[in-house]
Amino acid sequence: MAVAASPFSQSDEQKAIVEMVRQFADEQIIPNAEHYDGKDEYPEPIVEQMKELGLFGITIPEEYGGLGLDLTTYCMVVEELSRGWISISGVINTHFIGSYLLMKYGSEEQRQKYLPRMATGEIRAAFSLSEPELGSDVQAIKTSAKKVEDGAWEINGQKMWVTNGLMSALVFVLVKTDPDAQPKHKGFTCFIAEKEPGVGENTGDYAGLNVPPKIKKMGYKGVESTELVFDGYKCPAENVLGGEAEGLNNGFAQMMDALEVGRANVAARGVGLAQRCLELALRYSQERKTFGKPISQHQAIQFKLADMATQVDAARMLTRRAAQMKDAGERSDLEAGMAKLFASEAAVFCATECLRIHGGYGYSKEYEIERIYRDAPLLLIGEGTSEIQRMVIGRKLLQRHKI
Ligand SMILES: Cc1cc2nc3c(=O)[nH]c(=O)nc-3n(C[C@H](O)[C@H](O)[C@H](O)COP(=O)(O)OP(=O)(O)OC[C@H]3O[C@@H](n4cnc5c(N)ncnc54)[C@H](O)[C@@H]3O)c2cc1C
To answer: Is any ligand 1 atom within 6 A of the Cβ of residue 14?
Structure first.
């Protein structure tokens, strides 16, 4: 009788890369996360090692200097990094979205110009949709660009919540280029805005793009989230994603496509974080004793462990399905939405249960779960909240099952 392949099967290449990243997380990320979280400091030495491991080029084709691996393998790597600390995966996540946009929609000239340096991590990317007055409602974007005499596009407006907003050299930014477009989404363009990494007030070619001090956050520290202020910033016409002829007023569709892979990416982050909570809970519950026995021997605690493990596996399966469908060239908007919704909720559930299992110590900064508990809720928000995922899933379901 044929035995069904395990939904978690991996090729030899995947096993090797996952093993390498897990070891990196155990040896370099987990022992240092408390330090960088406590100081809210950019984890530069860890980022340097990620460059050496080739992690910035995982999905970038070999011809541009990357590893040329698929979304499924990328999600496995993200799971391992997030098991270490989701802020570390945050450093490559927006970079991954930027490289996806370039690979899929960039002109050959743009790919040649940026991808080789992105593959090594020499330059890193951010992406920017959100503004102070909008996140879910992307079509309400106010930041605008208009063509000026020298053929460049002048961008004005304010962006919000840009992860890697300071340390990035490229920002894939969605702005309004045709205020009269009907429907509205046909009036947005994605620009590749270049800037000086690590610099608050840009000058010279990048004058007019300023990065205010990073936003103080409850968790997800280390990696910075910033506003971006565009004040007369000139973006050359060749930096319209895909070139002016192809890319002008096509930015909305490009970004929505990138969000689809972004959702599989956030789902993988949820799986990694939830997996770490399960590991911590399994260990602590066998060490801590109450009423003369390890708390793991109380049925109430075993039920918590059972629920956590079930959610972790289910989240991983949904994530794997979404990534594999995308890799096979199938539409996976519905599946990516389901994976993102379930895995991010599973992450918050597992963080809460793990904290409860740790009792009072879970509230102490001496235990890893204190940080994870603050980090987890971000996953409910980024790349579309749970409410927005349900809207996407519901809409797609009705489209696929129209009577
Ligand atoms: C740490 C962090 C990093 C981020 N990084 C980035 C980044 O790199 N780039 C970027 O562009 N953005 C980024 N974001 C922004 C993020 O994508 C938005 O916060 C998110 O999309 C939600 O938008 P909002 O905060 O404006 O909430 P709102 O859109 O104002 O929503 C508020 C509440 O209303 C609900 N809601 C909204 N509309 C509906 C509706 N139609 N039906 C039912 N409920 C609804 C939402 O689910 C939410 O609960 C980041 C956010 C955070 C916190």
So the answer is: no
Q: Whose CA is nearest to atom 20 of ligand 1?
A: 135
172 CB within 6 A, ligand 1 = no
**C-alpha–C-alpha distance, residues 202 and 303, integer Å:** 54
Provide the domain count of the chain.
3
219 within ligand 1 shell (Cβ under 6 A) = no
- 195 CB burial (10 A radius; 0-12, 13-18, 19+): buried
pTM: 0.97
Q: Is residue 311 part of a domain?
A: yes
Give me the domain span that covers residue 213. 125-249
Q: How far is the CA of 47 from the centre of ligand 1 (A)?
A: 27
CATH of the domain at 311: 1.20.140.10
CA atoms within 13 Å, Cβ hemisphere of 52 = 8
383 a catalytic residue: yes
Provide the residue-wise pLDDT of the chain in tens; the chain has 403 residues.
555 667 788 999 999 999 999 999 999 999 999 999 999 999 999 999 999 999 999 999 999 999 999 999 999 999 999 999 999 999 999 999 999 999 999 999 999 999 999 999 999 999 999 999 999 999 999 999 999 989 999 999 999 999 999 999 999 999 999 999 999 999 999 999 999 999 999 999 999 999 999 999 999 999 999 999 999 999 999 999 999 999 999 999 999 999 999 999 999 999 999 999 999 999 999 999 999 999 999 999 999 999 999 999 999 999 999 999 999 999 899 999 999 999 999 999 999 999 999 999 999 999 999 999 999 999 999 999 999 999 999 999 999 999 9
Q: Whose CA is nearest to atom 45 of ligand 1?
A: 387
Rg (CA), the chain: 22
| CB neighbours of residue 151 within 10 Å | 11
Same domain, 229 and 268: no
34: domain CATH number is: 1.10.540.10
